[in-house]
TrEMBL record:
The lineage of its organism: Bacteria, Bacillati, Actinomycetota, Actinomycetes, Kitasatosporales. This is Response regulator transcription factor. One of its GO terms (biological process) is regulation of DNA-templated transcription. The keyword Phosphoprotein applies. Residues 149-214 form the HTH luxR-type domain. The modification 4-aspartylphosphate is found at residue 54. CDD domains: LuxR_C_like (cd06170), REC_NarL-like (cd17535). Coiled coil: none annotated. InterPro entries: CheY-like_superfamily, NreC/VraR/RcsB-like_REC, Sig_transdc_resp-reg_C-effctor, Sig_transdc_resp-reg_receiver, Tscrpt_reg_LuxR_C, WalR-like. Signal peptide: none annotated. Gene3D superfamilies: 3.40.50.2300.
Length: 220
């Protein structure tokens, strides 16, 4: 079972999310929180796989809680859930190590899919959030980011660059292994090595670096 923490200051929202997630036979909402500080403390004391954090919460907002949770409970995968799709929120969530970002008006099945993806170690961006990221990559600042990304990728081996390129396409470890004729465990080892070399907290950050650098896969 995927153990989930839901953090939102509105009880009705929490109840709705719980109802959606528990309709899936592999997901269990094991805890709830009404503010960011409570979410961090709950993640520290409760066995949780995935945390859903609202951005707009009292005491501590979701983005601050995300950063705190990265220190207090680093194994918990965090999805940011909000009604606000501003570009800065998306990029801050990814920059703080979030496993994904989706809007509250997402379809129920999308919410379930996002939780499953996060639990499996994959990143998830809602279509709306993806558009914000793409817009940012196309901005004038993208040139400077591209140069910095290429500098950081210079230390990777050829094989590591191949794996990173597939991360940039959003592939899971299993799918990347299939493309590269490697076991899922081997790909996982490469991903860990890549994150260390690039000083990235998670796959999303590494994938964005790959995109910034213009890294493309040569496998079909």
């Amino acid at each position: 079972m995927i153990r989930v923490l839901v953090a939102d200051d509105e009880p009705l929202i929490r109840a709705g999310i719980r109802m959606i997630l528990t309709s899936a036979d592999d997901i269990d909402v094991v805890a709830e929180a009404a503010d960011g500080r409570e979410a961090v403390e709950t993640a520290r004391s409760t066995a949780v796989d995935v945390a859903l954090l609202d951005i707009q919460m009292p005491v501590m907002d979701g983005l601050t809680a995300l950063a705190e949770m990265g220190r207090a409970a680093p194994d918990v995968r965090v999805l940011i859930l909000t009604t606000f799709g501003e570009r800065d929120n998306v990029l801050r969530a990814l920059g703080h190590g979030g496993a994904g970002f989706l809007l509250k008006d997402s379809a129920p099945q999308e919410l379930i899919h996002a939780v499953r993806a996060a639990a499996a170690g994959n990143a998830y961006l809602s279509p709306a959030a993806t558009r914000h990221v793409v817009d940012t990559l196309a901005s004038p600042a993208a040139t400077a980011r591209g140069e910095e990304a290429r500098r950081r990728l210079a230390g990777l081996t050829v094989r590591e660059r191949e794996v990173l390129a597939l991360l940039g396409e959003g592939l899971s470890n299993a799918d990347a292994g299939s493309r590269l004729h490697m076991s899922e465990a081997t790909v996982k080892t490469y991903v860990s090595r890549i994150l260390t070399k690039l000083d990235c907290d998670n796959r999303v950050q590494a994938a964005l670096l790959a995109r910034d650098a213009g890294l493309e896969s040569n496998t079909g």
